């Protein structure tokens, strides 16, 4: 897979990174998300200490990740339950004609 060289700017600091081609857009979206959250914490909460801001951003992003993962697992469980019910329904239909 081809690698892309990106220059990322997070909190006014530049970071050169080398990423897979299929990750480049996601990395750029991640940087935008981080910078947007930093700006929001500065404006809404009047936070100035960069370490505090970054830690709060980490907390928020991690919480969002955990919630989405949990929702994904619940969706997977729902799909499994539907598949089992469908299988049982088919078995009931078959048993109806066996008598």
Describe the protein.
The structure is a single chain. With about 100 residues, the chain is α+β, with helices and mostly antiparallel strands. The chain has helices at about 25-45, 50-99, and strands at about 5-10, 15-20. The protein has 2 helices and 2 strands; from the N terminus they run ββαα. The mean pLDDT is about 85. About 70% of the residues lie in helices and about 15% in strands.
Which labels suit this protein?
72% helix; alpha+beta; 2 strands; 2 helices; 99 residues; elongated
Condensed summary:
With 99 residues, this protein is an alpha+beta fold. The chain has 2 helices and 2 strands; from the N terminus they run ββαα.
Tally of alpha and pi helices: 2
- Shape label: elongated
How much of the polypeptide forms β-strand, as a percent range? 15-25%
Roughly how much helix do the residues carry, as a percent range?
Answer: over 70%
Low-pLDDT stretches: none
Q: Largest beta sheet, briefly?
A: 2 strands, antiparallel
Radius of gyration: 23 Å
Order of helices and strands: EEHH
Distance between the termini: 59 Å
Mean pLDDT: 83
Class per helix and strand makeup: alpha+beta
Order of neighbouring strands in the sheet with most strands: 1-2
> What is the count of β-strands?
2
């Amino acid at each position: 897979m081809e690698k892309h060289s990106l220059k990322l700017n997070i909190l006014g600091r530049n970071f050169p990174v080398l990423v897979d081609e299929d990750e480049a857009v996601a990395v750029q979206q991640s940087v935008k998300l981080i910078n947007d959250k930093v700006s929001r914490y500065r404006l809404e909460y009047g936070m100035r200490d960069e370490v505090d801001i970054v830690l709060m951003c980490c907390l928020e992003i991690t919480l969002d990740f955990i919630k989405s993962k949990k929702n994904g697992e619940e969706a997977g469980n729902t799909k499994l339950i539907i598949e089992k019910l469908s299988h049982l329904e088919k078995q009931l239909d078959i048993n109806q004609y066996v008598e």
